[in-house]
TrEMBL record:
This is DegT/DnrJ/EryC1/StrS family aminotransferase. Keywords: Aminotransferase, Pyridoxal phosphate, Transferase. One of its GO terms (molecular function) is transaminase activity. Signal peptide: none annotated. PANTHER family: DTDP-4-AMINO-4,6-DIDEOXYGALACTOSE TRANSAMINASE, TRANSAMINASE. Belongs to the DegT/DnrJ/EryC1 family.
Length: 394
């Protein structure tokens, strides 16, 4: 998955172009930048590649989530349905917005299920944070129908799924607003960075202003700009965008390599009878950053996870016991640990997060192992890997 594996002269050259000819700031300074606009260029390329009207780069995927929520009008006291299997950021961003995360069940897509969402809806539900985990997608048609019926905003956290599509549409562009992450270990990287993507012009307008203290970005005198709303600084720098631009140009190649490598390993594992694969609603659109499979029991999963490591199969994740990706292991979130009181502590009938149960998700995640698909593997390394996997299962 990690785009850093393909770092080359292209990234260096783009960053050097900012240092030698351009300027570090994404806005203004026209007299200093010699027409270098790396952030704008990357935003335009994102729009083209994802076939979306608007893209706005920010300083991280987390900042993108925070910006997307504010821009879509999700805030104090709103309930946002979230999955128990995700990176913590998808849940933290909801708390920081003053909203109330409501955990719902996932299905064998490893994303929120349509039934899970429906069961979690209350009169206070405003939105879902639909996380497309590990490079693949949720059941979009069914979920869209549920959200339409209940008038819910769909925020797509596609931080791990850039380059994936569902029925030809880029993940991130199917709901109301989508987010990508370009941190150091994602499919493509800016070093640190993220993006909001949307076809909704109101959300876009709110987003670029929110992520820059409310600046309306009208005219070319920054000091004289209007500020219709408050915001924060989630700006990306031109150096980060320059790196990301070179990486985004490699995205198609990255996805191609991932698909080829994943298929070789998946085909080789097809005859292991105790293994069943993750459900992928549109397999042709899988970004193939991970190969994810289920074992028949939790005990066997623990055993196989150990055997894979012993046989030198690196890059395997047993998320169920992972500190950062599964609700069960987030004691700090369950107990609302924070250096300062969170807005949610003012809401008296908030959920008791120490008591939230997601038994269906537990039953799935306790049997799930993901393997990272690397870009730099040689054919020999893949053949060796397959032999090692077979030995682990023997
Ligand atoms: C990486 C990630 C984020 C956060 O992105 P950062 O750029 O690291 O802030 C959010 N959600 C998911 C699902 C992620 O994997």
């Amino acid at each position: 998955m990690p785009g850093f594996e393909l770092f080359g002269p292209e990234e260096k050259q783009e960053v050097a172009d900012v240092m030698e000819n351009g300027f570090t700031f994404r806005y203004n300074f026209d007299h200093m930048r010699n027409d270098r606009w790396k952030t704008r260029e990357m935003e335009q390329l994102l729009c083209e590649k994802m076939n979306a009207k608007h893209a706005h780069l920010v300083s991280s995927g987390t900042a993108a989530l925070q910006t997307a929520m504010a821009a879509a009008g999700i805030g104090a006291g709103d309930e946002v349905i979230v999955p128990p299997f995700t990176f913590v950021a998808s849940v933290e961003a909801v708390f920081m917005a003053g909203a109330i995360p409501i955990f719902a069940e996932i299905d064998e897509t490893l994303c929120l299920s349509p039934e899970g969402i429906e069961a979690a809806i209350t009169p206070r539900t405003k939105a879902i944070n639909l996380v497309h985990m590990c490079g693949s997608m949720a059941k979009m048609d069914e979920i869209k129908a549920v959200c339409k019926k209940h008038n819910l905003i769909i925020l797509e956290d596609a931080c791990q799924a850039i380059g994936a599509t569902y029925k030809g549409q880029a993940l991130g562009t199917i709901g109301d607003v989508g987010c990508y992450s370009f941190d150091s270990v994602k499919t493509i990287t800016c070093g640190e960075g993220g993006a909001i993507i949307t076809n909704n012009s109101d959300i876009y307008e709110n987003a670029h202003m929110f992520s820059d203290h409310g600046h309306d970005h009208v005219g070319n005198d920054r000091g004289a700009e209007g500020h219709p709303n408050m915001g924060l600084n989630f700006r990306i720098s031109e150096m980060n965008s320059a790196m990301g631009l070179a990486q985004l140009r490699k995205l198609d190649k990255i996805i191609d390599i991932q698909r080829t490598n994943k298929k070789t390993i998946k085909d080789a594992m097809a005859d292991i009878t105790e293994v069943s694969f993750r459900e992928i609603p549109d397999e042709a659109g899988d970004s193939a950053g991970f190969l994810t499979f289920f074992m028949p029991t939790e005990a066997r999963t623990i055993e196989i996870n150990k055997k894979l490591a012993e046989n030198g199969v690196d890059g395997c994740f047993y998320w169920y016991i992972n500190n950062w990706h599964y609700l069960k292991n987030w004691k700090h979130i369950q107990e609302l640990k924070s250096p300062a009181a969170l807005p949610i502590t003012l809401i008296e009938d908030r959920p008791d997060y120490t008591k939230v149960q997601t038994p269906q998700s537990d039953a799935i995640m306790s049997r799930t192992i993901s393997m990272l698909i690397k870009l730099s593997w040689t054919e020999e390394e893949i053949a060796q890997r397959i032999a090692n996997i077979k030995r682990a299962f023997a």
